[in-house]
Amino acid sequence: MACKESQEEEKEVLLSIYDGDECFKQTENAYQYRMGPEGHYKSFLLEIRWGDNYPEELPDINLDAFFNNHLQSAVRSSVVERIKAEAEQWLGSAMTYTLFEWAKENVEDLMSEQTEKTAQVKEDRKNTSESVPASKTKERKEALTKAQKRKLANRTDYKGEMPRGWDWVDIVKHLSKTGYSKHQENTDKTS
C-alpha cells in the first residue's frame, strides 16, 4: 500500500513540474521525456515505466519508442545500462524526476558514440521504401496573377475552353505576310 501512495505523490509532483513542457508525456504508469531537439541525430526519447512495487524496485527503463529508430543498438543499450546504474542508487525513493534530469545533464556524454551517418542511412532507406507512385503525385499548377487570370478568362468560353478555331491559321493573312514566292511564279507562267 505504501508503494501506491508514493506513486500517487510522485505522479502529482511530476505533473506539476512538467506542466506545459512539450518534451514530457505521461501515459498510464509510464513517463516519457525527449532529450535533445526533435529531429536531431543525438536526440532520444527516454521512457520510465513503473512496476507495482516501484519505488522499492527499479522501474523499467527503455528506449524502444519509434522516436528512437535512428539510434545505433550499441548506443541504445549503453544509455539504458547507464541510466539503470544511476537508478540503483535511488532505490527506495522517488527517482523519475531525478533520472530525467540526470539524462538531460548527461545527454552529450550518453550520445557520444552516436554518429550522424547512421541516422542518415536509415532515413535514406525509409525514403526509398516509402516512395510514392508517380500516378498518385499531384502536379502543382503555376500561380497566376489576377491580370493573367482575367486575360485568360476573356479568351475562353464559360467552361474555360478556347473557342473553336482559335489556333487556325488565316490563310489570306498568312499569304499576305509571306508574299508570293518565285517558285510559284514560274509554275503559274508554265501552266
Describe this protein's structure.
The mean pLDDT is 80. A hairpin with a 3-residue loop joins strand 1 and strand 2. With 191 residues, the chain is an alpha+beta fold. The chain has eight helices and four strands, in the order αββββααααααα. The protein has a four-stranded antiparallel beta sheet, covered by helices on one side. Helices cover 46% and strands 9% of the residues. The chain folds into two domains: 116 residues, Ubiquitin Conjugating Enzyme, CATH 3.10.110.10; 34 residues, no CATH class.
Task: Using brief descriptors, characterize the structure shown.
191 residues, Ubiquitin Conjugating Enzyme, 9% strand, alpha+beta, single chain, 46% helix, 2 domains
Order of helices and strands: HEEEEHHHHHHH
Could you name the CATH topology of the largest domain?
Answer: Ubiquitin Conjugating Enzyme
Low-pLDDT runs: none
**How many helices in DSSP terms?**
8
InterPro entries: RWD_dom (IPR006575), RWDD4 (IPR042770), UBQ-conjugating_enzyme/RWD (IPR016135)
Domain RWD: 9-110
Biased composition (Basic and acidic residues): 114-128
Region (Disordered): 111-159
